[in-house]
Amino acid sequence: MSIILLADSNLGAYACTLLANELAQEHLDCLVVTTERISSLVSPLPENPAGNGRVAQLNCSINELLLSSLILKATAIGVFIRASNVETFVTNYRQICQLNAQRPAPVFSGPVFPLAGDTLIEDLLPRMCCDLLCLHGERQLEEAHDLMHRWPNPVPTVAIGFWFMPEAPETGGLVGVGKPDSPHTLVVLAQKGLPKLKGAAERMLRLLGQKASASPHWQVLIQTDHTQSEKQLPLNADQRVLAELPTNISFGASGNLPIVLGRCSACITISSPWIYTAMAWGRAVVVMADHGIRTDHGSVPFSSSGVMHRLDSITALDDLLEMPIVNSNWLEKMGWGVHDGASQLVKALRTRAKPEASQ
């Protein structure tokens, strides 16, 4: 089989590159196509795993891909672009196949990061034109089943786990297993446009500044979890607030997130999907409950995680190391319990492959 994985964001391209490497281990050739320039975030894993399938990357627009001969050679296409654009892509692709008297390859799609509740349903509905829905874990499978159980022709689903993140850090990249020794590092995963409430970003930074000042033996790294212009201020904060922060607070870009998460002592976020990496790698984690459980903040999936706490309830940063660990049953149901996702995806695709793929 020859698979195209299409992404329209840097983080999506990163996830697709990781998935491509897993599929290459299943002896499949993969082409990662991204409409965004691939940054240094992609990829920490080998591009061409020895002795298995090949992995290549291409930067082009969606229309350029549709007009190229590559699209007709694919035996399966993964579409990991904005949900609202999926139906247009799938319709155009199938029309191109019809004009070329060719049977379309199966198209699979799904959210790059784990979602739940109304947010998951809103993301899945525009993807129902696809032949297969890729979800993360048992929870998402259950919610998709509840959505489609009365449909005459429900879209098939498959759980492929946390495919958007490395299952393990590079050798030697996980520092301080258990309770790490001092000096400690707290990573704050800053998200684009969050928090949304007026003045909330400044309040969050002031709280972090207070905690950092009271814990001089800690380093606090506010790390963007997305591609961000150098002219943008982290957390949409006022420059005057940034100037008041203590010297043990610094800022980082998204390019080295896997390395940073493997070496930190603790991690805090509002709802960044990279918190799943910190959880899976045994870091102390806090999902901020200061703004409540809000759909527009992406915090709904974490309601049963056991790690939602108010930042102002943390007296000192050392308290983070004593926080209850993540609910393991919740984490497994969200996708961490699936460790053969690439294999499950291949099995699902082979039952839907066009005849040319089996010759």
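^ that was protein a. below is b, sequence first then the tokens
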Amino acid sequence: MKKTLIVIAFGCGLICGLWANKMVKPVKAEVAGMDSYDLKSDYDFKRAVRYIVEDCKVDGTKIRC
């Protein structure tokens, strides 16, 4: 009985996971035509992040709070 419940729970989780993957579409975010790689090296974008994220330190690609 216990094994049957585990198999049913696993199956339901697998079906829900596959269903959710089809519902969520991949996204591509761009700012002024720049992708994430371009934004990492853009001085104005880094300055804006530093201004918005107070009490944190932006070091390269990482934000430490």
